[in-house]
Amino acid sequence: MTSDAGGASVDIEFRSVTKRFGDLTAVNQVSFQVLQGEFLSLLGPSGCGKTTSLRMIAGFEQPDEGQILIGGVDSIGTPPYRRDVNTVFQQYALFPHMTILDNVAYGLKQKRVAKSERYARAREALELVRLTGREKHRPSMLSGGQQQRVALARALVNRPRVLLLDEPLGALDLKLRKEMQIELTRIQQQVGITFIYVTHDQGEALAMSDRIAVMSDGVVEQLDTPAEIYDRPRTAFVADFIGEMNFLEGDVTHAEDGEFDLDTRSGIVVRGRGEATKGRPARVGIRPARLHVVTGSVDGATNTAHAVVETKMYLGDEVQIVAELKGGTRFVIREQRAGTDDLHDAIRPGEPITIQWEPTAPVLLADAPAPNEGGNDD
Ligand SMILES: Nc1ncnc2c1ncn2[C@@H]1O[C@H](COP(=O)(O)OP(=O)(O)OP(=O)(O)O)[C@@H](O)[C@H]1O
Ligand SMILES: [Mg+2]
Questions:
Q1: Distance, CA 52 to ligand 1 centroid (Å)?
Q2: Residue to mutate (ligand 1; options 18, 20, 21; most atoms within 8 A of CB)
């Protein structure tokens, strides 16, 4: 077993892994480590290479380049059934003619585990997923969520080093999904097995993961904790994929002591925190909830934008305003309603407003616009 710099054991490691299907590069020079006991999500839009990455860990696909280490050992040449990993799919395909208990014990039977032990372990796994009492039932007698739990028990019963889960909740309705998210987190903490969890649902990844690898077009754009990914996305893609983000771009006119000023070409001066380079183009993102609105046209030297209201919507506790800045950039603002209804009543489509924010709100993004051409805010 290998260790990372911090001393934690590494269960899975990708070293410059590339996978091609004909002309298409599904996974492109990807490197990352998954630590023992970690809940790591692979998150990204359809076709970005999540399932392909998982299938390579499981051994159903081989990388064209690079290495995948399982427990510190290069997995090349090791067939799927000899890898210390198990997969749970969205389509869980239980055996319909077998009881729940036999479904869960099946893998152990294949491995020739003695009958008394395999039933004892299957019962233990069913207890873990809270299905004690349903041992004798057939899969068709269970709900979708319960069937998914049987599939989970069937994988856990093997006590793998790593559990691979490919959109396991994709077939469930929203309410059941939410319940199963909590269940899965509880089970993972209880058994301490490393989970690699594939999803394209950003809320799910944020809620469940220790760390998230955000993928786009076969590459990992950022691998970080949910809080870091949300508060400090490195690229516009990550910022936009993880919740809503407003963007501004321009030139850095001042950069000192971890503060910067960014002049947009439409006359807004963004003051923010971060290491920018004076004289270079840059892009910032600001979350809708970090913006505040006042009616009318109020002057301010920095972090102030004048706009015209397009729409206003009440979203329960929040009010959402969409407004167009001078130059055509559209901003989404979301404010808490508590105590501010008078203000929000006064905000109407077609009326001028002033949008303001704190210097801690703008996030400096690593992918700067090209010099003198990235002006969609003017
Ligand atoms: N067996 C295959 N043959 C050819 N192309 C493939 C094969 N498997 C995957 N691909 C292609 O590789 C790319 C990545 O596919 P992959 O299934 O890993 O995406 P994904 O991130 O899991 O997407 P989704 O969220 O839709 O499941 C896609 O463009 C897909 O069409
Ligand atoms: Mg997939």
A1: 6
A2: 21
The answer to whether residues 196 and 134 touch, using CB atoms and an 8 Å cutoff, is: no
Query: Do 239 and 363 touch, CB atoms closer than 8 A?
Result: yes
Do residues 166 and 133 make contact, with C-beta atoms less than 8 angstroms apart?
no
Which of 249, 250, 363, 266 has the alpha carbon at shortest distance from 307?
Answer: 266
What spacing in Å lies between the alpha carbon of 63 and ligand 1's midpoint?
A: 14
Q: Are 321 and 307 in contact (CB under 8 A)?
A: no
Q: Distance (Å, rounded) from C-alpha 186 to C-alpha 206?
A: 15
Element (H, E) at 293: strand 292-295
- Shared domain for 174 and 258, answered yes or no, is no
pTM: 0.87
Q: What is the pLDDT of residues 291-349, one digit of tens each?
A: 999 988 888 889 999 999 999 998 888 899 999 998 899 999 999 887 667 777 888 99
Q: For residue 94, what is the DSSP state?
A: -
% helix, strand, coil for the chain, step of 5: 25, 35, 40
Q: Answer yes or no: do 51 and 162 share one domain.
A: yes
- Domain closes at, from 203, 233, 263: 233
> What CATH code is carried by the domain that includes residue 27?
3.40.50.300
